[in-house]
Amino acid sequence: MFRNLFFIFLLLLPLFANESEDESSFYELGNGLQLGNLPLYIGGYASLDYKKSDDASRYRVDDIALMSYGNYDKFSYMAEFEFKEFYTFTQNDDKPNTTEKNTKLHTERLYLEYNINENYILRFGKYNTPIGYWNMLPVNVLRDTSSNPMSTELLFPKFITGAAASYTSYGDSDIVVDVLLQQNDAIDDSYNNYKMDSHYGVGVTYTKDDLSLKLNLGNFHNIEDKKRYSYAMISAKYTTQSIDISGELGTQKSEGEFTTKYAGYLQSVYNFSDQHLGIIRLESYDDKKNNEQDNIAIVGYTYRPLYPVALKAEYQLHSLHTNNQFLCSFSVMF
Amino acid sequence: MKKFPIILLLLFHPLLFSKEYAIISNKNINNLTRGEIKAIYLQKINFFNNLKMVPLNLSAKNKIRTSFEKKVLKMNINRLKSYWIKQHYLGHRPPITMKSQKSVQKFITNVDGAIGYVEIKNLQNGMNILYKWSD
Fold first, then answer.
1. d(Cα A81, Cα A76) in Å, to the nearest integer?
2. Which residue from A1, A101, A182, A251 could staple onto A199, CB 3.0 to 4.6 Å apart?
3. pTM of the model
4. Which of B45, B84, B86 sits opposite A137 (nearest CB)?
5. Which domains can be identified in chain B, with CATH numbers?
6. Which is nearest to A69 in space by CA: B50, B87, B42?
7. How far apart are CA B89 and CA A325, in angstroms?
């Protein structure tokens, strides 16, 4: 029943669309919709993608997500529910084709925030782990390429369920300190990259004008192999009107041994115009858990007829040649 | 020689005709730095001295807004558009938009914590200037 209502709402949402100069009062694609005068905003996103590797072609309806948020006095909340890998059709060269449907509605984010004052915010619930820059905005339509860097998959859990405190100092430069704490079971960890019941982390971000630097350190307990893992990551981002350069580099250890010796990327996005972007990303990792080491060069192009709509194509050239692949995707935020 | 005043006028033309603007509040806010104003307009700061902050924009194509975004926020319209779509994912909304400088000042008079920007020549009595800039 809830699933059907979810789909009906998604279909009706564009009917509220309105080309308006007043972006805060009316619905505009990518900005969500306020329900009446309630402190309640609704939005979402969706993505379709295609992947061609040496031996298979995959067609996928990946994300279909609905989110709701709002604030009242010093409290604010976010609730996001999502179908993940909703429909996948894979055409294999040397084995039968497969079709998979995943109609489970996942709880992607669910948290409550309390603004203590201009410097301190507390958060409780499930949220994207604020590590590096990529994992803060991990959805297809907001990121630069259809694929995610391997460093965001290997080094740290993408989601955390627990408490967080952040301190921000504003001036000519901004400093943000994040403290993360999980000492409980996770909310819907079925597609988190690590299943955890404990996670402690700290992050420091320094931003001045177009440059931002970040350091993250943390430790978590994986309930699948019952081991504790520690990670460290440094990130940097330089953004101007025409070019974005970003990079992340990290390492992970468990029981005194490297589990990921290093994983990182360096990416440059050049804005040919507001609609046309060219992307080059170089990645490298040495994953001891799976005994895999790879260097990847990615060349991509993104067309955004409107910012909340993205058509992306990329080619990945791997030193592990069997992983070479072509990806393209269509994604939208509403 | 007769051309000298004309040359002087041309040289100083930008200074003579540059417009001055101010970021204003009512008397309940005393002082804000440019960094704090930027953080309030980008909805990174929601409360200041225990007061709920309500930043006000003029309409998207208004020249004062364009100047404010360029000189105070130091972001152009496209960068701001992408910023607010990312903020939508993070659960934050852009500032509310007012139709005129008069309505900005009326709102500020009635709502503690509201801040906006106007051209200084249109400033009404009772407004508190927090920050000034010119074209």
1. 17
2. A182
3. 0.87
4. B86
5. 20-134 (3.40.190.10)
6. B87
7. 29
